[in-house]
Amino acid sequence: MAKLRTGNLDFDNEEVFPQLSLDCVIFGFHAGSLKVLLLKWKSREYWSLPGGWIRQMEDIDDAAIRILQERTGLDHIFLRQFYTFGKTERYDSQELSDKLSYIIDPRAWFDRTISIGYYALVDYAAVFPNPDEFTDECRWWDLEEVPELLFDHYDILKKALHSLRLELSYQPVGYNLLPEKFTMPEMMRMYEAILGRKIDPRNFQKKILHSGIVTKLDEVKRGVAHKSPYLYSFDRKKYQEVLEDGGLFII
Amino acid sequence: MAKLRTGNLDFDNEEVFPQLSLDCVIFGFHAGSLKVLLLKWKSREYWSLPGGWIRQMEDIDDAAIRILQERTGLDHIFLRQFYTFGKTERYDSQELSDKLSYIIDPRAWFDRTISIGYYALVDYAAVFPNPDEFTDECRWWDLEEVPELLFDHYDILKKALHSLRLELSYQPVGYNLLPEKFTMPEMMRMYEAILGRKIDPRNFQKKILHSGIVTKLDEVKRGVAHKSPYLYSFDRKKYQEVLEDGGLFII
DNA sequence: AGATCATTGTGTAAATTGGACATATTGAAT
DNA sequence: ATTCAATATGTCCAATTTACACAATGATCT
Fold first, then answer.
1. For B197-225, how does the pLDDT look when each residue is reduced to its tens digit (9 = 90+)?
2. What are phi and psi of B13, to 5 degrees?
3. Measured on CA atoms in the order B61, B67, B72, B74, is the torsion positive or negative?
4. Is A108 close to B4, i.e. CB distance below 8 A?
């Protein structure tokens, strides 16, 4: 029979789950591209996803919210749990220890860990990237240009993107990726960035307007070269309705 | 800073992850209804989902395969990880300890656990239900009649069904729920059972045949009252293709 | 001031897909 | 031979999706 560790209900406030971590793939949208927020380890050129540990006294969703808050300064963000990564060989702990010695205590990372993946969609412009205790830089990377990542974080990123695309295919998404007011081409480029393919602007506009999730404002965006585009904003009530319908919403 | 437990690479073969479990929702299909496999605790009238612990030296997918194998005798089954349950108040450990004392060592269950959920689709007729060390009965329940479940297993079951329906809506499913040869009405009733609604037989047949995932055999099912229905079998190659397309496949 | 130019804004027609719908056939049971 | 309950099957209409091109705008450049 498998051995079970016996328990103790009174935890130190910050005591965390052993061998269980949480990784966040934070997506933003800027200049027509999908971006992802990455951390650079202290005095190294190694990058990884923001992550952390789950406290004994905290829901895992709250742990994800806390970690996101710490890295981006944002509250009330769109967050989805998408997969739990638990292969025995998720990463080579020897290699990791070589790369990160002097930053972390390698013994603390020798145990195999299982990691719960969350992805978030945030308003790029509202984020204040903030490194954690192990890292000295936190910044956005274009999805097309992400550097090599530590651990199995590249796999996690791929799976997050796949899950996001799937979600996009049956639900409206983007409430959290765009600013309060946005133009139709901006919204379209967001969809293009997520889906990784071109969309016909006429068909896109027709579909989005018909769904009712956005409202055209009596206002155009000034100061851009070329023709001034109209501004739109999300109709929060309708958006919520469509979400709850589970209404298939495929672009 | 959060405390980390330090590690040890050499594990006893059966040593498991602390505070992390795995629960399986095993779906079968029989007599026109979707069934789920449940376990009854020794000398109690309490039921729960089959589950278990994850070994230190095993992939979580392999742990799910092992647990399924132990409960059903089956290999090579359709298996999907669908969600990880990690609320602090997933269940009341005092209540649990009252209900299950003398069966389990309550100390072993006092720790809050996080549970990874998998669902499986299996061929009902091929299963040999087999209780585990804590239970004395393992049997199929009709989805409409499941008894009250321990822990948060009812929530897990609901979420599994929801995930299955979602998957059914963009992928062909059922390779593992039907026998080698099956009739069109059987397949249709399987879809109806999963989706929980009636389907038009003409439209269903049109759609399934057009997708190419099944092949009509030169054979009818004999010995049934009324008109003998034709037999079909899955075209494994085409089925795989459609799966890999991610081809939307909505009934 | 006028020309340039990249970007926005917009409609229609064809093709495809989805949904509704009813009746003849079969073969076991009586 | 009749009954009966389940199987097998095709058409039409509606809705949705896709393909496709050009005029309008307004900042920028000369």
1. 999 999 999 999 998 999 999 999 988 88
2. -55, -35
3. positive
4. yes
Q: Which residue from B187, B242, B228, B164 is spatially nearest to B32, judged by alpha carbons?
A: B187
| Global ipTM | 0.89
Q: How far is the CA of A207 from the C1' of C3 (A)?
A: 37
- Domain final position from A124, A141, A169: A169
- Short-list A152, A158, A164, CA closest to A120: A164
* A115 and A84 fall within a common domain: yes
Give me the DSSP letters along A182-193.
EEHHHHHHHHHH
Using CA atoms, how far apart are residues A175 and A196, in angstroms rounded to an integer?
Answer: 19
Domain end position, chosen among A169, A201, A223: A169
What's the longest Cα–Cα distance across chain A? 72
The verdict on B87 and B189 lying in the same domain is no
By C1' distance from the Cα of B226, the closest nucleotide is C27
Q: Which two tokens stand for residue A201?
A: 């602007």
Choose among B133, B146, B105, B147: nearest CA to B42: B133
Q: Enter the tokens of residue A237.
A: 């009530």
Nearest to B114 among A12, A60, A111 (CB): A60
Task: Tell me: do A233 and A162 sit in the same domain.
Answer: no
Name the residue among A57, A44, A45 with its Cα closest to residue A9: A57
Residue nearest to nucleotide C22 (CA to C1'): B202
pTM of the full predicted structure?
A: 0.90
Which nucleotide's C1' sits nearest to the alpha carbon of A226?
D26
Tens-digit pLDDT profile for residues B171-202: 888 888 899 999 999 999 999 999 989 999 99
pLDDT tens across A142-151, in order? 999 999 999 9
Surface of A (9-28) touching B: CB under 8 A: 9, 12, 14-20
pLDDT of the residue at A109: 65
Q: What percent of chain B has pLDDT over 70?
A: 90
Residue B186 sits in a domain of what CATH number?
1.10.10.10
Residue B90 sits in the same domain as residue B135: yes
Angle (nearest 5°) at CA B225 between B224 and B226: 110
Strand B16-30 versus strand B114-121 pairing type: parallel
With respect to residue B8, please indicate whether it lies within any of the assigned structural domains.
no
Same domain, B98 and B61: yes
List of A residues 161-190 with CB within 7 A of strand C: 183-185
